[in-house]
Write a structure and sequence with these properties.
Elements lengths: L1 E6 L2 E6 L11 H59 L1
Antiparallel strand pairs: 1-2
C-alpha cells in the first residue's frame, strides 16, 4: 500500500506498512493434560483417604474386641471371687 501525497505540485509517495501479528493458542492439549493430572491426583487422594478410614475402622474393631474380652475376663474373676466367699 502506498500513499500518494501532493504538496505544492510535487508528488511524493510514502509507503505505509501494516504488520499483523497472529497469536495462536495451542492451549487445548495442555489444558487437557493438566485436567487429567488433577483428576488422577484426586482419585489417588480419595483412594488413600478411603483406605486410611478402613484401617482406622479395623483398629477400632480390634480395640473394641479386646475390651470386650477384658470385660468378660473381669466378670469371670468377679464370679470366681463370689464363689470363693461362699
Amino acid at each position: 500500500m502506498a500513499e500518494r501525497i501532493v504538496e505544492d505540485g510535487v508528488a511524493t509517495e510514502r509507503a505505509t506498512h501494516t504488520t499483523v501479528i497472529e497469536r495462536r493458542s495451542g492451549g487445548g492439549a495442555g489444558m487437557t493434560l493438566i485436567g487429567l493430572a488433577v483428576l488422577i491426583a484426586v482419585v489417588i487422594g480419595a483412594f488413600y483417604l478411603f483406605n486410611q478410614n478402613a484401617r482406622e475402622n479395623r483398629k477400632t474393631d480390634a480395640v473394641t474386641s479386646v475390651a470386650k474380652d477384658v470385660g468378660s475376663a473381669a466378670k469371670d474373676v468377679g464370679d470366681a471371687a463370689k464363689d470363693a466367699t461362699k
